[in-house]
Amino acid sequence: MPLAPELNVDEIIIAAMARQLKGEVLVSSVTAFGALAAHLAKRRYAPDLAVLSTPESGMDVTPMPTLTLGQFLTDVQQGIPLTMEDIFDAIFTDHFRIWINPSQIDQYGNTNITAIGDWHQPKVALVGSRGIPEDTSHLSETFYYILNHSPRAVVARVDFRSGAGNGESRRGLQHHGAPTVLVTDLGVFDFTGPDGTMAIRSLHPGVTVEEVQGRTGFPVHVPSGEIPSTDPPTPDDIRIIRDADPLEVRKLELMSGPMAAEKFVNIYERERQTLHATYPRIGKLGR
Amino acid sequence: MDKRMSIDEVIEQIPDGAKVAIGGSSISRKPMALIRALARSGKRDLTVIVDVGGPDVDLLLGTGKVKEVIYAFVGFEVLGLAPHFRRARQTQAVKFQEWTEYTVMAGLDATIKRVPFIPTHATLGTDVLTVNDAFKEIRDPFTEEPVVAVPALRPDVALIHVNYADIQGNGVILGDGHVDVLCAKAAKSTFMSCERILSSEELQRFGRDVQILRVYSKGVAEVPWGAHPTGCAPDYRTDLRHLQDYLKAAASPDEWHHYEKEFVDVTHGEYLENHGGAEELVSRLKV
């Protein structure tokens, strides 16, 4: 059975992501889903979060997902500027959280954004490990999301480990950086199965265990007892998400083909005026 | 000292086979006017060192200037994968060495600190350590625990683009700083382009935003729109429409040849004219 029809998949995923964030830590905004999860968490559950408006700076602004304007948002709202050194110091001292959207994740929580196939002769060269090795060797919690749960994305073994999971990847790392949670369009998963393998924590309303197994490249561990249903977003959650993303940049991550292209052009044309309508420019002091 | 130079005078300073570090991050504040000049020059066999690469690395690969790429990431962010990077990786036409965001910073920092390597836990448990021969897993001499030795990265040249500079080579960066300061300090010779040259008195009013210190810079070129088609906060946003045209052109040899003629093998003035001139760019891209 698919996801219950009265729910929007983007909103249930973002709400589930938001509930994982807590404490007083920097939260990076690399993707629309990550930015909205951080914003919703701060408004509803974790008021002390220090949310960034770009991957590396703009602390304590209200993020608005855009295609190109993260840094401008920092400017108009006078966000606190950070440096790349600040970011990696926060990662190494475990004062940082990020939602990572990998191309592949495996049963041990190893993740891949580098290549499909052998690294030396890739079938598809992706982008390169970026900062994931740093995250998975230092953070006490690492968070992943995948929008289209499929046997090609949730695999028995990743083709390349950009990020370290459990099992043999933990050698020399102890527990730090171990995978914590994966949120997909089917449910919320953790790594409490045998030897730190993936297990079902909750299923989104309407989703069955059989559907999860059918769309996963390995048998996912099913805990004994009744499997909880993911709490759907509340009306307040939904309002906060929609207000924070007036351009609906989050929908782009779910689309492909001509529909995505049209939405993309529309967002790009409108983002400047929306930015200034939502956050009128404040004059900079001393400049 | 007056360090003003033309774009072409900067390129003359780069020898064949040079190791060139490039500032900026993916589609933000890349020194694209300098990169285009390098791409249309007769230079060859360059080693490109980049933390987060985008159209810069892709153009140099697409024009055959590169022998080796040292990178943590190369991609076009919301627009997807970098076409020439992907092709070169898949055909193994060029040598690649995958690093990570922090380890590129650490490699540059090792050069600045004049030490042979910097130890880190980053990359333990990942395949970056498997495929990157430059890294060595060693024992912490105090605890015998495993750590990774990241060797010094020693660029011959750094190319960066900043918002403002003075003729002595001090530079102001107003948006996210990325790794430009590390590139500027680590390279034997640093050259920067800037949106505008200001008097030294005007420049000093920017206080801590004066991030590039003149003792590290060899030359400065005044190049308005010098980061285009990447963005330069808070002056202009990324030109995603141009980057979409770039991606389309990169898909066929004929169209790529046409793209090179129109946008690479031309002076910076002609480049702007081929976009309809600076006024057209202002109307689309100024924030």
Would you mind describing this structure in some detail?
Chain A contains nine helices and 13 strands. Chain A has 287 residues and is an alpha/beta fold. Chain A has a single domain (9-278), classed as 3-Layer(aba) Sandwich (Glutaconate Coenzyme A-transferase), CATH 3.40.1080.10. In chain A, the strands form four sheets. Chain A has a five-stranded mixed β-sheet, with helices on both faces. Chain A has a three-stranded parallel β-sheet with strand order 2-1-3. The longest helix of chain A has 22 residues, at 257-278. The radius of gyration of chain A is 19 Å and the shape is globular. Chain A starts with 8 loop residues before the first helix and ends in a 9-residue tail after the last helix. The model of chain A has no long low-confidence stretch (mean pLDDT 92). Chain B folds into two domains: 7-99 and 154-239, Glutaconate Coenzyme A-transferase (3-Layer(aba) Sandwich); 123-151, no CATH class. In chain B, the strands form two sheets. In chain B, strands 1, 2, 3, 4, 8, 9, 10, 11 and 12 form a nine-stranded mixed β-sheet that branches. Chain B has a three-stranded antiparallel β-sheet with strand order 5-7-6, covered by helices on one side. In chain B, helix 2 (32-40) packs parallel to helix 3 and helix 3 (55-62) crosses helix 4. Chain B starts with 6 loop residues before the first helix and ends with a helix. Chains A and B meet through helix 3, helix 4, strand 8, helix 5 and helix 9 of A and strand 3, helix 4 and helix 5 of B.
Element-by-element helix/strand order of chain A: HEHEHHEEEEEEHEEEEEHHHH
Task: Report the CATH architecture of chain A.
Answer: 3-Layer(aba) Sandwich
User: What fold name stands as the CATH topology of chain A?
Assistant: Glutaconate Coenzyme A-transferase
| Contiguous helical run count of chain B | 12
Number of strands of chain B: 12
Number of helices of chain A: 9
Q: What is the end-to-end distance of chain B?
A: 34 Å
What is the CATH domain class of the largest domain in chain B? Alpha Beta
Give the low-confidence spans of chain B.
none
Strand fraction of chain A: 5-15%
